[in-house]
Amino acid sequence: MEFIHTATLLHDDVIDQALIRRGKTSANKIFGNSVSILVGDFLCFKAFTLMTTIGNIDIFDLFLIWAMLCRRAKYFSSPNAETLISLKMNI
């Protein structure tokens, strides 16, 4: 889960154009957006690879629940939450 959490932080910093993460210069500011996205993607795929070695398919159910909760939290904490919600309602 830590790999995935770090990947989401890298991706979020690119989306939010963040300059600082935990009091330090953000990875996207140091290395650029492309590298940050690629490293985030690598961490996600590495996490999936590690999950498959566990041999328990239930781990994917837990991951999906966790991912949905994280996405929902990010979605509703967005500065544009009202616009996003109204767009979602009209779809």
Written overview of the protein:
There is one protein chain. With 91 residues, the chain is mostly helical. The chain has one domain. 79% of the residues lie in helices and 4% in strands. The chain contains 5 helices and 2 strands, in the order H-E-E-H-H-H-H. The chain has helices at residues 2-16, 27-31, 33-54, 58-77, 81-90; strands at residues 20-21, 24-25. It has a two-stranded antiparallel ribbon. A hairpin with a 2-residue loop joins strand 1 and strand 2. Helix 1 (2-16) packs antiparallel against helix 3.
How are the secondary structure elements laid out?
Blueprint: H1 2-16, E1 20-21, E2 24-25, H2 27-31, H3 33-54, H4 58-77, H5 81-90
Antiparallel strand pairs: 1-2
Number of domains: 1
Strand content: under 5%
Biggest sheet features:
2 strands, antiparallel
Cα-based radius of gyration, to the nearest Å: 15 Å
Number of strands: 2
Structural class: mainly alpha
Order of helices and strands: HEEHHHH
Whole-Å distance between the termini? 32 Å
Low-confidence regions = 87-91
Shape from CA axes?
Answer: elongated
Mean pLDDT comes to: 78
Sequence of strands across the biggest β-sheet: 1-2
- Give the number of helices: 5
Estimate the helix proportion, in percent: over 70%
